[in-house]
Amino acid sequence: RKQSYITIGESIDPWDWQPGVTADSIIARVIRQKDAGSMLLLHDAGGDTREETVKALPEIIHFFKSHGYQFTTIADVLHKTKADLMPPIRDDANSGIMGTLYDIFVQGTFYGNWFMLYLFLTAIFLAIGRVILIAVLAIRQFYENKAERKKHQGDIKLAPVSIIVPAYNEEVTAIKTIQSLLQLDYHEFEIIFIDDGSKDKTYELVNTSYGNHPMVKVLTKPNGGKASALNFGLAHTRYEFAVCIDADTQLKNDAIQHLMAYFTDDEIGAVAGTVKVGNENNIVTMWQSIEYITAQNMDRRAFDLINSITVVPGAIGAFRKAAIFKAGNFTSDTLAEDCDLTMRILKQGYIIKNSAEAIAYTEAPETLSALLKQRFRWSFGVIQSFWKNRDALFNKKYKFFGMIGMPNILIFQIVLPLFSPLADLMMIIGLFGDKPGKILTYYVAFVLIDFVVAIIAFKMEKEDYRKLIYIIPQRFIWRQLMYYILFKSVRRALKGELSGWGVLKRTGNVKVKDKAVRA
């Protein structure tokens, strides 16, 4: 009958859809039921099935309209309004304070789940994007730097240098450090050893062994912190350039040559060396070794390309003394004097380079408690340095440092890690939800990309690939440890507390590797 109506409710509920049902089969069933004079109800069980049923509706509607049928609503057939048929629901049981609390709970649960889902997706996409960008920049810097070194090989006259070694309670490592420095392959240098009021026998041991050595100056001062010791050492140097190292660090014989080769013009204010773990003797130090290779050193390679290196490491870094003085010397108002000074040198318009070939082997903490203590000082110090130099954030005056280097610290070292535990929690919850495949796909993609970039980092530093076996537990457990450190640092920063530079218990287990082994 051409004047027959197909009546559809105000909101369409698709019918009992089954896997494999297509729009054509739905139309065929509609036709059969129409001929029998039956009423048709489209309904589904929710979830993804609704998507397929809704896709079929345009074809169903088109089919019947092409056969002369008209579409209307129940309200029009009954000559009623939508409000008549669907009056507001009143539930006296949920009125008052209990009803309000219930509404808050329901809405809070909905928006809370929505927030955590998009937090997870945001964290994953930002992390993937950063890993890929760092890899691209680091690879480009690797080849450009290689070509530049080859081009200028033998053309640069290397200047004499003062090597500054601040120490506090370093009686276990100080002698070995000076011995290794005296064996460096460099034409002219001096060693300035500063004892910063140690409570052990650091000064006595060093002064007895090297107090009369023509290349070594052994100095002592009241305890005032690492920054004051470095400034004290700078005041007693003879040369225009200074290399600062830690008292638990040993350099490869050619490290100074590689550092000084980068001072090609007056714009170069500092050069960051490459730090590696010299005491890989347990799982804790092995994890730190992986982190140095795949994170810290890789980042410096990448940010070298855009002059945004934010930390010339205290373990090995070369400075133009004029740049230090212009930036205001080392300061004691942060726990990361190396990070703070690096930022201030960049703000003065200098260029900071990275020397992947200038290698220093440092003694990493061998216990979990010592590691947490060290990383707290680093994390807290970076937050302090960022806040102290916050005027550079998104400031075009400071070029890439202001527009990329500082935002990188804010987003990836402070803000995002604070929410990352929630993102991890959302991932776990999502695996038991209705779309575990998507969440798992994103996370696996991140893990695989991160692993590929780690392989690239190992290749560029000529490291033993077998060490990558430890990267899987390292990635999972290390993240949780760093979350704890960051939360502790932020809490301390908000309270306005300040700690001393402190000292870790040394073992003297550092070993210099003349040649890295490749698998």
Task: Name some characteristics of this structure.
two-stranded parallel sheet; 519 residues; alpha/beta
Task: Walk me through the topology.
Elements lengths: L4 E4 L14 H13 L13 H18 L3 E4 H4 L4 H4 L10 H57 L8 E7 L6 H9 L6 E8 L5 H9 L5 E6 L4 H9 L6 E5 L4 E2 L3 H6 L7 E10 L5 H22 L11 E5 H7 L9 H11 L3 E12 L5 H21 L10 H32 L5 H25 L10 H25 L24
Parallel strand pairs: 1-2, 3-4, 3-6, 4-5, 8-10
Antiparallel strand pairs: 6-9, 7-10, 8-9
Helix pairs in contact: 1-2, 5-10, 5-14, 5-15, 10-15, 11-12, 12-13, 13-14, 13-16, 14-16
Number of strands: 10
| Strand order in the largest sheet | 5-4-3-6-9-8-10-7
Identify the overall geometry: elongated
Uncertain ranges: 1-17, 515-519
What's the SSE pattern?
A: EHHEHHHEHEHEHEEHEHEHHEHHHH
Compute the average pLDDT. Answer: 83
| Beta-strand share of residues | 5-15%
Summarize this, please?
The protein is α/β, with parallel strands linked by helices and 519 residues long. Helix content is 52%, strand content 12%.
Your description of this structure?
The N and C termini lie far apart (82 Å). This protein has helices at 23-35, 49-66, 74-77, 82-85, 96-152, 174-182, 202-210, 226-234, 255-260, 283-304, 321-327, 337-347, 368-388, 399-430, 436-460, 471-495; strands spanning 5-8, 70-73, 161-167, 189-196, 216-221, 241-245, 250-251, 268-277, 316-320, 351-362. The strands form two sheets. An eight-stranded mixed beta sheet has the order 5-4-3-6-9-8-10-7, with helices on both faces. Strands 1-2 form a two-stranded parallel ribbon. α5 crosses α14, α10 (283-304) crosses α15 (436-460) and α14 packs across α16. It is α/β, with parallel strands linked by helices and 519 residues long. The relative contact order is 0.10. The protein is elongated, with a radius of gyration of 33 Å. It is built from 16 helices and ten strands. It is 52% helix and 12% strand. Mean pLDDT is 83; it is low at 1-17 and 515-519.
